[in-house]
């Protein structure tokens, strides 16, 4: 019986190649798209699950709460004393507590130096927490050596080639601080699905000496740059543990004010497996992804698959009238309903399996490109992934059943007598069902087109938005001690070159995050009041405003020749003026302002500008000249001689014999990089929206071809009665276009709501404009019109006499 | 064997009831060769469909071998339909996608006949109708007469007791028609009950009983 079904299936394939091709291809493309996205989503969801104890690993994050009880800062890092203290206080529930301190040191081996990323100072017990395998060396011992260094396989190759890395000495430079490390272990490369990448793990000893002593390090609650991870004991309740942290904090930290410290700062626990998709704190080791992206991608996959299934059902039911005769006969010959359902179901399954085979080929071809695009190493290895195989089995069954159910139930319900008599006509209920499907298909397509346009619109808006300063031609280099020590001299030297118009130092430059802040007091209505709003600080040299081209709205710029400006002058932005409660920038000038330990006056007010990406609203900021917090040099170049200026800058840089490689970045590029995720979503949307339209059009094409064929006789009669070609094209076209119109109406609220949700990620957005819908609707309408009319014009041009002969 | 008692079938339109069949009384014995005759639209096909269990929308009593059809469950009726009836159509109604061999095989598949048995039954039928050489052809590659022969072969493959034929020669020219009617006659001699509907007086001559119909009623019966 089964082979009989298969035979019929093959013969149908041969008889109706176009129909089958449209059907299989549409489904294959849809399946391929969803398999690709599945692989991506699976990868996203697999982050940090490879650790043997991944369910027991938690990250400690630290929050600051202002007096209103609002969280003013939430860091993914904590201060160095927390890990050892937690371990000693909660030894019964915390098996292990380790710290990682990220650094970008210069590593020098045999005269070659590299500035490295993925470098961490680490507690020696790190290997008890994370399942990273050592290929050489002893995980218990390697980092207990004061000069211990563990490197990955790749780094071993990079530094030592084929030589045995064990015992090799590498010189490490952090600023003017230098240390000799010895390779005590080689570990496998860290899996790509880790929320941060590690290439080097060094002993914590250099950090301790940097602090002066272990005691001093254990007193420092202010330097929150240690990634802290706990391995909880089996069965330990993280929430219960968390609830004991306030008491813990009060026990160990002394308060400067009346209120307990735990009112101002809190510790939180994050499951390590949730960091990649859920954690987006003010500091992270590496930028994480977001669950929202996973949702968007999954929704797109589902949409595409849905459209392809709809196609499949549509074409299958459309063709069912042709097969009505066969069904009627089979019934007369004794087939019962169940057998017929089975037959049509299995035909549908064959088709889906065929489509899946095509889809796998497409996936195989497209995977490298898609992997590049998503920046992940995705692989399709069916033999190694029983889960994927299972998933595909489910996909086939689901799609096959979904796509096959309606036609099979519908066909098997035919009344044989009516079919055989020839009076059989497809009922209106059936046509309605098909119409609903077409409407759904176009609604989805239009939503996706709207999605593309809104994303592109927003990206365009972001890129072209005036940030409030001149972001062009500003090169940024790390500020090391040789430079900052001789800053004024160096600046004069650089300014000699006509291509360099200004040079400035800063603790942070625009495009970075604003993470530093201190307590503020300001003179409001003649009284010095504490300010409860977080005002972020940037430490700058006097030339900062000129370098970045920001505008003063009141007061004056910092003056190098006024000695007091280096110790007691502040520049504030308009947001800070509003936050403090001054009525206007003019009022703010010359008001008393205390920041941390520094007392002075607000000398100038800067027009609001975007320091951070447009995801963030403009926060209150204060600028001041400090002594030693510079970390970056910004160099403003003349647009006409940028290349010469860069060459000159490089020569000067090398002449200073800095170990820092010359690797400047441009502010402009940094800003663009911050929208990379959105850019990706935009491209993805664009690609898949295109795909959705193509699949929908394939379906519409098949449906139009079929319905035209069904109506050849009617068309012939109408022509004999005197209908023109235009009349007939309109007659055939309007039914379909009506469906597109309804789809469009359904798409409007969905698209509007969905895209407004997405735009909510940005503090500044274009909003969803009405023309987006007009364009999306027109595109869908035009594409549908062209598809349908291509069919109906052909039918309308046929000589009616020919159609009658056949009929 | 077949006993129809006061069979009525009608359509209610807004102002009147239109009878398709009215007060049909008919008894058919095993081994009969019955011809239903009458002009188009007189109700011959409807009557055949009712006898063949393809149409259940009628009033009156139909008993088959003493059992009331109306009283049967769906499953029983479907089993009866499968085991006792074979059908032949004016337009042959072969499945275009299947070869001659496979068309004949289809009813056997639905009767769960084993593969070996199917082979021997079909071989026998092909042989009987001289179609061995054509077994792998598709219907469209055959003449009308040959297609109808396949139709007959298919109808009798399941060894039904009753063969129902609705205008079996309507699309054929006379030589082909004669061939089909001779096959019918032979089948009848072997014991198959045959009921055919036709316009053609010549065809009626092959049977034993001629039932003339008029306006949904049996007008008269003639023995031949």
Description:
The complex is a heterodimer of chains A (807) and B (224). With 807 residues, chain A is α+β, with helices and mostly antiparallel strands. Chain A has three domains: 2-43 and 291-462 and 676-806, no CATH class; 54-278, no CATH class; 481-659, no CATH class. Helix content of chain A is 51%, strand content 17%. Chain A has 29 helices and 25 strands. In chain A, the strands form three sheets. In chain A, strands 1, 2, 3, 4, 5, 6, 7, 8, 9, 10, 11, 12 and 13 form a 13-stranded mixed β-sheet that branches. In chain A, strands 16, 17, 18, 19, 20, 21, 22 and 23 form an eight-stranded mixed β-sheet that branches. Chain A has a four-stranded antiparallel β-sheet with strand order 15-24-14-25. In chain A, α1 (2-15) crosses α2, α11 runs parallel beside α14 and α16 crosses α27. The longest helix of chain A is centred in the middle third of the chain and has 38 residues, at 337-374. The relative contact order of chain A is 0.10. The model of chain B has no long low-confidence stretch (mean pLDDT 89). Chain B has helices at residues 44-51, 74-84, 100-110, 115-128, 144-157, 174-189, 201-204; strands at 2-12, 17-28, 33-37, 59-64, 67-68, 85-88, 162-166, 193-198, 209-214, 217-223. Chain B starts with a strand and ends with a strand. In chain B, 42% of the residues are buried. By secondary structure, chain B is an alpha/beta fold. In chain B, the strands form two sheets. Chain B has a six-stranded mixed β-sheet with strand order 6-7-8-3-9-10, sandwiched between helices. A four-stranded antiparallel β-sheet of chain B has the order 2-1-4-5, covered by helices on one side. In chain B, α3 crosses α4. In chain B, 35% of the residues lie in helices and 29% in strands. Chain B has a single domain, classed as Rossmann fold.
